[in-house]
């Protein structure tokens, strides 16, 4: 039992990063992570140790986020532009900082489904199968969303047809 709680605790930094990228609100992200941890601890008997606990936690967090979005549809949501840039390591040059901020703004403009997939794979470093399981979609659908997200980001962050950032693969 203690091992499960330790495994959950080890995942908190990754959950916070993902929650901040999804919500664009540090306080809202902390609340989302807290709700996720409360649910995971309360329901830990439902987790079956057939693999890592991290995807299960991400799934809980994502479901809570989606439920909150459904509940807030009537209220407008404001999105701070540079939240994603604040949680990523700061690049060295002014050009790199500007390119990172531009990429963060472009990611905010992606459709939610594409942004969720891209954040899990590119920012959190999850494998395709793991990300597809978290999002509860087929692997092909994940690959399609990633392809569209990357193409859209390339288009939004290019200058005269040339990509500003080479990191977008």
From TrEMBL:
<keyword id="KW-0804">Transcription</keyword>
<dbReference type="InterPro" id="IPR036388">
    <property type="entry name" value="WH-like_DNA-bd_sf"/>
</dbReference>
<dbReference type="InterPro" id="IPR013324">
    <property type="entry name" value="RNA_pol_sigma_r3/r4-like"/>
</dbReference>
<dbReference type="GO" id="GO:0006352">
    <property type="term" value="P:DNA-templated transcription initiation"/>
</dbReference>
<dbReference type="GO" id="GO:0016987">
    <property type="term" value="F:sigma factor activity"/>
</dbReference>
<dbReference type="InterPro" id="IPR013325">
    <property type="entry name" value="RNA_pol_sigma_r2"/>
</dbReference>
<dbReference type="InterPro" id="IPR014284">
    <property type="entry name" value="RNA_pol_sigma-70_dom"/>
</dbReference>
<dbReference type="InterPro" id="IPR013249">
    <property type="entry name" value="RNA_pol_sigma70_r4_t2"/>
</dbReference>
<protein>
    <submittedName>
        <fullName>RNA polymerase sigma factor</fullName>
    </submittedName>
</protein>
<dbReference type="InterPro" id="IPR039425">
    <property type="entry name" value="RNA_pol_sigma-70-like"/>
</dbReference>
<keyword id="KW-0805">Transcription regulation</keyword>
<dbReference type="InterPro" id="IPR053866">
    <property type="entry name" value="PhyR_sigma2"/>
</dbReference>
<dbReference type="Pfam" id="PF22029">
    <property type="entry name" value="PhyR_sigma2"/>
</dbReference>
<comment type="similarity">
    <text>Belongs to the sigma-70 factor family. ECF subfamily.</text>
</comment>
<feature type="domain" description="RNA polymerase sigma factor 70 region 4 type 2">
    <location>
        <begin position="104"/>
        <end position="153"/>
    </location>
</feature>
<dbReference type="Pfam" id="PF08281">
    <property type="entry name" value="Sigma70_r4_2"/>
</dbReference>
<dbReference type="GO" id="GO:0003677">
    <property type="term" value="F:DNA binding"/>
</dbReference>
<feature type="domain" description="PhyR sigma2">
    <location>
        <begin position="8"/>
        <end position="61"/>
    </location>
</feature>
<keyword id="KW-0731">Sigma factor</keyword>
């Amino acid at each position: 039992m203690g091992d499960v709680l330790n495994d959950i605790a080890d995942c908190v930094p990754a959950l916070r990063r993902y929650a901040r990228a999804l919500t664009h609100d540090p306080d809202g992200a902390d609340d989302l992570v807290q709700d996720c941890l409360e649910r995971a601890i309360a329901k830990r008997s439902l987790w079956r140790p057939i693999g890592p606990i991290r995807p299960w936690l991400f799934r809980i967090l994502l479901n809570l986020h989606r439920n909150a979005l459904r509940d807030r549809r009537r209220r407008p949501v404001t999105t701070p532009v540079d939240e994603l840039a604040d949680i990523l390591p700061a690049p060295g040059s002014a050009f790199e900082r500007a390119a990172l901020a531009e990429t963060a703004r472009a990611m905010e403009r992606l459709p939610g489904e594409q942004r969720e997939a891209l954040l899990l794979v590119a920012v959190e470093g999850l494998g395709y199968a793991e990300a597809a399981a978290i999002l509860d979609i087929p692997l092909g659908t994940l690959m399609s969303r990633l392809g569209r997200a990357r193409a859209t980001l390339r288009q939004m962050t290019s200058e005269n047809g040339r990509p500003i950032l080479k990191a977008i693969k």
